[in-house]
């Protein structure tokens, strides 16, 4: 009688096993288990605190004061057609106010710019965050973040027509002195 040899065939496992710190096997198979969806809590509008209202009011007052100082700086050097655009109620506006004026020549443009910077620095101790357009001296922009002053040469102002571009803004024209 011949002996039967019993051989066991091992099946190949497609998933690999790793051991973790606790020496427990961890499966790293390629199939993922579906996880339950997380519930997102609805956010309710929180009322504005009294502190936030005070800060907002003080910022509004500061902006108005800055606008007044910019206008005085423009008037000091005989700027023409000074206009204030109130952009606070316009959705997605990047500042609260535009103060726009024009000059007849490049030297007057530079003089008005210097005057506005001098007035804001002396009276409010605020310098512009960014100044643009000094090279060409056709449209100089003084960026005070919440207030932007635009000083145009007359023909350039007529070309760009910012007042029409921001027609939804509240527009206030300042009389020349």
Could you please describe the fold and organization of this structure?
The protein has 177 residues and is α+β, with helices and mostly antiparallel strands. It has a domain at 66-174: Beta Polymerase, domain 2 (2-Layer Sandwich), CATH 3.30.460.10. Helix content is 32%, strand content 23%. The protein contains 4 helices and 8 strands. Strands 5-6-7-4-3-8 form a 6-stranded mixed β-sheet. It has a two-stranded antiparallel ribbon with strand order 1-2. A hairpin with a 5-residue loop joins strand 1 and strand 2. Helix 1 packs across helix 2 (106-124). The longest helix is centred in the middle third of the chain and has 27 residues, at 50-76. It is globular. Mean pLDDT is 77; it is low at 5-15.
CATH architecture of one domain: 2-Layer Sandwich
Could you describe the largest sheet, including whether it forms a barrel? 6 strands, mixed
Mean pLDDT: 77
| Counted beta strands | 8
Radius of gyration: 34 Å
The H-level CATH homologous superfamily of one domain, spelled out, is Beta Polymerase, domain 2
Q: Which residues form runs of ≥5 with pLDDT under 50?
A: 5-15
Strand % is 15-25%
Query: How many helices in DSSP terms?
Result: 4
* Relative helix content: 25-40%
